[in-house]
Amino acid sequence: MTPARRVVTLPPTVLGTDAVHFARACQRRGADVLELRTDLHTADAVDIEALAQVLPLLVSERGKPLPPAWVSAAWRVDRDLKDTRGREGSLDAPSGKLLASHHAERQLSTAEALALWERELPPDALVKHVEPMLGPEHLRTLLETQRLLVQRFGVSRVTVLGMGPVALPARAVLARNNVLDYVAAGGSWAAAPGQRLLDDVVREMRGVDRLTLEPPLRLGILGTSIVHSRSPRIHRQPFDRIDIPEDGPVETLVDSLLPHYAGFAVTSPFKLRLAQHTRSSLPAINTLVRRGDHWESFNTDTFGARTVMERLEAKEAFVLGDGGATAAMKAVADEAGCALRVLRRADIDAPLTGAGVWTWPDRVSPPEQLRFNKARVAVIAYGAPGRRIATEIQRRGGTPVLLGAAWFVAQARRQRQLWESAT
Q1: Can you tell which superkingdom this protein's organism belongs to (predicted)?
Q2: Are strands 261-266 and 287-291 parallel, antiparallel or unpaired?
């Protein structure tokens, strides 16, 4: 198994000496190639020679011509098979430097994709094929396109990518047989929707047997706004951070990924939806485990809920929100000896006292009328989201009790045991 070269694109706001610092930082974190695009930077915006001393450069012609100095300094020169008007594009590049690419404007069948590659290419040119993904089920088509392009051009030349809100797991699966893996450095900017984070990809490759013929079954976490999640750090690799929109087709996504993944952690806002989709007897689930040709669902959040209730040491507690985390607390409340009072937004009309648990994600604005009268409020988020929620609790008169890490570790231990039983 030869891992794909990890390509990070220089963001449009990073210029001059900052670009060199960015390249060095990415190199230290495991990037293999730095991409410069003509639609993002002008020739005088960067020191091309200084950048080339840090990382091999992939210079990409996007709408505007490539500066000659970029071409001279490049490891590879990316030119489109078609120009911006749909005409046959120039594939001119020095010997051994060409990366021929095609960026489809719509989702294609494999036959349509292969028809785009009838043009004769130099035998040392790399090949990159990119398509938008209207839905996760398109992964099957992209895998077939990749297989046939590899058959034609050779395993050492081809990269096939999907783009879009549900493309991340497809890119993770395709990366096994790609030459290049375009990844995001992190922060608020990414070169294309669906890119994995550089740190997550590097973590995956540590300790992987590169001679393994069969790819390992993947794991992943499904949720919205999960860049902070620690799951990829503590669970066995490969483990993907699959961040999709709240209204994304999560049901179709998990079904299309059944052949490629051993299991998933499920977080907000998909715990209830996937419980229904998998016909679970539970109202909410947070774990999927592959059982042959179907998913089996579990809720290990009950282990986290039990831990939080034990730490609160309360006989009565209010719960803010009525989603998947609350379902777990309801399931263990009697066993923990704690009477729960579940409060929806409309139920809050007076300052809250005693002990409570805040289950709303920090991306959800709490009701304006929410106030506490010296209440102890457990925070079950962790990291930056947990700290933001804690600040909000204090602002409204409460005392936050940070129990997110305790919840997370307790439920994750059980998830790990379940995934080891996947078939």
Answers
A1: Bacteria
A2: antiparallel
CA–chain centroid gap for 301, Å, is: 22
Residue 211, pLDDT score: 46
Categorize the per-residue pLDDT at 236 as very low, low, confident or very high, splitting at 50, 70 and 90.
Answer: confident
Phi, psi of 128 (to 5 degrees): -125, 125
Instruction: Report the C-alpha gap between 249 and 390 in whole angstroms.
Output: 32
End-to-end CA distance of the chain: 23
Mean confidence (pLDDT) of the chain: 93
pLDDT classification of 377: cutoffs 50, 70, 90: very high
pLDDT at 213: 44
Note if the bond before 238 is cis, omega within 30 degrees. yes
The torsion defined by the Cα of 287, 290, 296 and 299, in degrees rounded to 10, comes to -10
Query: Counting runs of H as helices and runs of E as strands, what totals does the chain give?
Result: 14, 18
Name the pTM for this structure. Answer: 0.86
d(CA 407, CA 183): 31
Residue 114: φ, ψ to 5°: -65, -35
Domains of the chain, first to last: 5-208 (3.20.20.70), 302-409 (3.40.50.720)
The Cα–Cα gap between 404 and 381 comes to 5
188 token code pair: 């608020």
3 state DSSP class of 280: coil
Cα–Cα dist 102/126, whole Å:
12
Ramachandran area for residue 380 (φ above 0: left; ψ -120 to 50: alpha; else beta): alpha
Q: How many CA atoms lie within 13 A of 301 on its CB side?
A: 29
* pLDDT of the residue at 63: 87
187 Cβ contact partners less than 8 Å away, ≥ 6 residues apart? 11
Give which of 144, 161, 170, 149 is closest to 9, Cα–Cα: 161
pLDDT at position 212: 52
Q: What's the longest Cα–Cα distance across the chain?
A: 75
Between CA 180 and CA 80 the distance in angstroms is 16
Strand partners of residue 129: 102, 160
Q: How confident is the model at residue 84 (pLDDT cuts 50, 70, 90)?
A: low
